[in-house]
Amino acid sequence: MSRFRPHPWHGLDTGPAPPEVLNVFVEITPFDLMKYEVDKASGYLRIDRPQRSSSQPPSLYGFVPRTFCDERVRKLAPEAKRGDGDPLDICVLSERAIARNEIIVRARVIGGLQMIDGGEADDKIIGVLENDYMWGAARDVDDVPPVLIERLQHYFLTYKLVPGEPARAHIARVYGRAHALRVIRAAMADYDARFTR
Questions:
Q1: Mean pLDDT in order along the chain per 10 residues (197 residues)
Q2: Model-level pTM greater than 0.70?
Q3: Which sequence spans correspond to the domains of the chain?
Q4: Strand, coil or helix: 70
Q5: Answer CATH for 21-195 from 3.20.20.70, 1.10.730.10, 3.40.50.720, 3.90.80.10
Q6: Which residues, 6 or more positions from 123, have their beta carbon under 8 angstroms from its beta carbon?
Q7: How many Cβ atoms from other residues are within 10 Å of residue 84's Cβ?
Q8: Who's near 118: CB < 8 A, 6+ residues apart?
Q9: Which among 17, 60, 84, 195 is placed 20 to 30 Å from 186, CA to CA?
C-alpha cells in the first residue's frame, strides 16, 4: 500500500487480466463539455480545452494505465507515421450513468477504432463495464448495437473540428476484439520499452 496517491498512468495496474480485462482511469464522462486530460507530470486532471462544438462523448473515456503508443502500436496502423506518444485511449460502455471522472473502472475489451490523427496512431479501444447488466455479456464489437459504434466514431471525428479548417483525423477501420488485444499488447510492450528499462 502506498503512502501517497499513485500516479494514474504509472502507479496503477494495467488490469486484473490484461489484455482482456483492464483498469481504466476515466478522464471524461458523457456529461463533460470540457476536454480533461491527465497531466503527465503530476497525475492530476487538467483542462485540455473546452469542447468547441456541442458534441458530447457517448461513453466514459480515459486511458489504460502502463500503456504507451509508440512504434509497436504504429506498426499495427499501416497509415500512421508514428504513435501518438500517449497512454492508450479507451471508451467504456455502461448502462448506468456515471457522472464522475477521475475514477477507476474495470472494462472488458470488445474492439476498437483505428484512428489516425495528424499521421499518428491514436487507437480508441472499446470496452464494456465489467458486470454491467446491459453490456457486460458483450465479448466483441458485433455484440453491441451498431449505432453505439457510430456515435463513438462521430464523436472522435468531430471533437477537434475547427470550422473552415480541414479535418486532421479519420478512422481507418473499426476492429473487433482479436485486433484490440493485439493493440493493447503492443501498447503494454511500448510502455515497458520506454519506462521500465
A1: 85 97 96 86 87 81 98 97 97 95 97 97 98 96 97 90 81 98 98 92
A2: yes
A3: 21-195
A4: coil
A5: 3.90.80.10
A6: 69, 73, 76, 77, 88, 89, 112, 113, 114, 115, 183
A7: 22
A8: 168, 169
A9: 60
